[in-house]
């Protein structure tokens, strides 16, 4: 296990401590604002306009996951309907990301499906796209099933996320490409056991490059979500060497991280999309961002007393 992977596992374990969570929720909101566009939809839409003016597209996410009652899921659904309508009204370049557990997946899979279907249907009326985020491994198959079921009903303006660190990923990618599902490709940010996920970062990166090649070689539009310069440069070189145009893929990065690099990629003519979350349920998302690499934590600590 390399140092970065050890750091990630330790931080995720510490973040799961209830006392740490309580203290973070009490004192950490200002620090979390680095990664979050605002508490409200209006604030997020304003920030999308700023990024669009710099040539950066957006995928907008209303924070929330792991709900305890279906009434919460209904509230999230209504916010997503407003979100989809707001994107259309403001005519900004943004699609939508949502988490299945915030729509009720862990409580009532059918109710979850109904909630997501309503959001995807509204997005289709506006000519927009919905990305169903991938959470930890107990929800992987259920999330894939939701997407395939929606496609089967003619709602093809929906895709999901595939995590390179899962051992099952290569086979999932083959099936989903064949089904015409648009995928966001990521390394993976949850704490998973060795039985289901690669534990060495070298294995994760090798699998990540493999599933990117599977997309590019098949001529399937590819969304590559990474801040890793090695991956980004490798994709650029692979595309040039194989005559793959810049319109065949997009890079995706997170709001608040490497914003100058996002602008630079846009100026180079690459398609770049920023994953932008907003809302008050920020703690789980925030801790996963800190856990991705020590530099993220160091950046927050440097700004703690400013």
TrEMBL record:
Its cofactor is FAD. FAD binds at residues 134, 163, 187-189, 226-227. Substrate binds at residues 99, 288-289. One of its GO terms (molecular function) is proline dehydrogenase activity. It catalyses: L-proline + a quinone = (S)-1-pyrroline-5-carboxylate + a quinol + H(+). Keywords: FAD, Flavoprotein, Nucleotide-binding, Oxidoreductase, Proline metabolism. SUPFAM superfamilies: FAD-linked oxidoreductase (SSF51730). Pfam families: Pro_dh. One of its GO terms (biological process) is L-proline catabolic process to L-glutamate. The lineage of its organism: Bacteria, Bacillati, Bacillota, Bacilli, Bacillales. This is proline dehydrogenase. Residues 44-296 form the Proline dehydrogenase domain.
């Amino acid at each position: 296990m390399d140092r970065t992977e050890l750091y990630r596992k330790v931080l995720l374990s510490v973040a799961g401590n209830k006392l740490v969570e309580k203290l973070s929720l009490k004192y950490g909101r200002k620090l979390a604002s680095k990664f979050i566009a605002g508490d409200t939809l209006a604030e997020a839409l304003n920030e999308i306009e700023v990024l669009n003016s710099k040539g950066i597209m957006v995928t907008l996410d209303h924070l929330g996951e792991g709900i305890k009652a279906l009434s919460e899921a209904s509230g999230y659904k209504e916010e997503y309907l407003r979100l989809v309508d707001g994107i259309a009204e403001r005519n900004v370049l943004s699609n939508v990301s949502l988490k299945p557990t915030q729509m009720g997946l862990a409580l009532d899979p059918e109710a979850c499906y109904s909630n997501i279907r309503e959001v995807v249907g509204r997005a289709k009326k506006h000519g927009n796209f919905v990305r169903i985020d991938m959470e930890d491994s107990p929800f992987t198959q259920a999330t894939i099933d939701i997407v395939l079921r929606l496609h089967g009903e003619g709602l093809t303006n929906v895709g999901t996320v595939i995590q390179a660190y899962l051992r099952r990923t290569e086979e999932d990618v083959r099936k989903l490409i064949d089904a015409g599902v648009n995928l966001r490709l990521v390394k993976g940010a949850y704490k998973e056991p060795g039985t289901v996920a690669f534990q060495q970062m070298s294995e994760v990166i090798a699998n990540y490059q493999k599933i990117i090649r599977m997309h590019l070689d098949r001529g399937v539009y590819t969304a590559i979500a990474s801040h890793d310069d090695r991956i980004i440069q490798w994709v650029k070189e692979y595309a040039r060497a194989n005559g793959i145009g810049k319109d065949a893929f997009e890079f995706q990065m997170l709001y608040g991280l490497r914003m100058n690099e996002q602008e630079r990629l846009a100026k180079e003519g690459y398609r770049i999309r920023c994953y932008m979350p907003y809302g008050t349920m920020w703690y789980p998302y925030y801790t996963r961002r800190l856990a991705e690499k020590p530099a993220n934590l160091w950046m927050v600590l440097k700004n703690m007393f400013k």
